[in-house]
Amino acid sequence: MESINVSCNDKIKIVRRLHEFGMVDYMECGWPGSNPKDAEFFERAKTELTPEIQKKLVAFGSTKRKSVRNAADDAQIQALLDSGTPTVCIVAKGHLWQVTEILRATAEENLDMIRDSVSYLKSQGRRVFVDLEHYFDGYKHDPAYALECAKVAAEAGASGLVLCDTNGGSMPWEVCEMTQTVVSTLGGPTSGVTVGIHCHNDCGMASANSIMAVKAGAGMVQGTMNGIGERTGNADLCTIIPTLALHVNTQLSNVDQMSGLTSLSRFVDETMNRSPHSGAPFVGHSAFAHKGGLHVAALERSPDSYQHIDPARVGNEQRVLVSELSGRQNILGKIKEVGVILGEKAQTSERALAILNRVKELENIGYTFEGADASVHLMILHASEGYCPPFEVLDYSAQVYDQYLDSSSRIMHGDPRQRHTTARATVKVRTVNFDAQVLPDGSDPPALVERLEVSDGNGPVDALASAMLRALMPSNPYLSNIELVDYKVRILDPESATGAATRVMIEFRDAINDTTWTTVSVDRNVISASLNALIDGFEYALVEHASYCMLCYDDDEN
């Protein structure tokens, strides 16, 4: 797939994780004759992977070339054998037009290529699967020839006949009918041949087509984790596995291990340096996220009201979002999640309504709280009785200036290579004096301290973050574990040009617990918006991750 490139080490890691998952029977790991990386993988697999994993490995290739008389003399066929895998999968043309116009071979030559390749690999003790490329398009073009290709492969000893919707243009009812024909002709429990399905997602039908093929009698599904594959992708196993297990009632092995699916999906994305698709069925971050107030109210009565399965079955979780579409129940759910008491039941409901109205007001000016749970969390805390923030920013400033490398470049529009842009921020905070000791005169130390710090940075936001941390860490050393991992800025009304409102979202990470949270702020001054998001992020870190003790104090008495 475009932008996907994994190292040999990555492939080893993914194969091990797929094996641990337990619901994958075969793992097709590359084409050993096509590139050095795949050749390296199969060589390393012989010593670095356990015998149990090696049993599942499949080497991929093609039938012998039309110019080679015997499959035994084809270098690519030999590379499949040299890979050492117990199973090989070879691609063969199942479409007469593809044979004559693309392969430039005769119909009989193609059948001979299939027959000779399968029988030779079988004679060498390999289990052989045959991917019948373009099978569904080929069946529409010439049903008799497409079926003949399948028959020849089966007669030569293939254990699996995999029907491929290579261009991704077939519809579910077509796949069902054509698969049923092959199953009734060549498959069945006594034939020794398993009919399989291999779909591409060009029409968004890959998963549906795969499910329909299973309903028609297919016993093998080829797919990829997270739908990775050529063009728009292959059939997504993260959708197909739970669908087959929970909705189609098929007999899948190790179905009790399906709770590891979400973790596996995210592991593969992380290994491939991809951002997970939030809206992916079953495993996406939003797969069980509920936003509408009516939905959330119904979920309080029964999770089945707006969920097709229990998210835990696939290792995911239910989430309640807060937005302008929320109802009071969304906020009450968040209050319960935060674990604070806002008063008696009626008072809690009243405050929840006030918070909800505040959310709607803020979203109307550009805030978005769906991806900023930490900001909602703090909004609820600030509405609770007795809560005092762990610190307060009293004032700040940020400047950006050019640092010239030599005096000759101090001219208007000088060479940008001759100057270095630096940002400097000053922040004054008031914070709880947790680390205070008894004063020399025996008196109690002040409950609060004020600190003024200055710091340079790559930009004004970086400088502000650094200055804030320097001011806060003497009393809150835990903050040394906090990282800023993402910073997003969006202009909300570009027609206002430089006076436009700006939304800032900052993602933080606790390096010890490997947890993340996001805060949001909107302002016509991007620096102010950034500062407010930083304040929320550090406050959330102290309150939720540093065992901050919420103290109350009277500001007039310090």
3D architecture notes:
The structure is a single chain. The chain is an alpha/beta fold and 558 residues long. The chain folds into 3 domains: 215 residues, Alpha-Beta Barrel (TIM Barrel), CATH 3.20.20; 95 residues, no CATH class; 167 residues, Double Stranded RNA Binding Domain. 38% of the residues lie in helices and 19% in strands. The strands form 4 sheets. The chain has a 7-stranded parallel β-sheet with strand order 1-2-3-4-5-6-7. Strands 10-11-12 form a 3-stranded antiparallel β-sheet. Helix 9 runs parallel beside helix 10. The longest helix has 20 residues. It is elongated and about 90 Å long. The C terminus is likely disordered.
Key descriptive features of the protein:
38% helix; 558 residues; single chain; TIM Barrel; Double Stranded RNA Binding Domain; alpha/beta; 18 helices; 3 domains
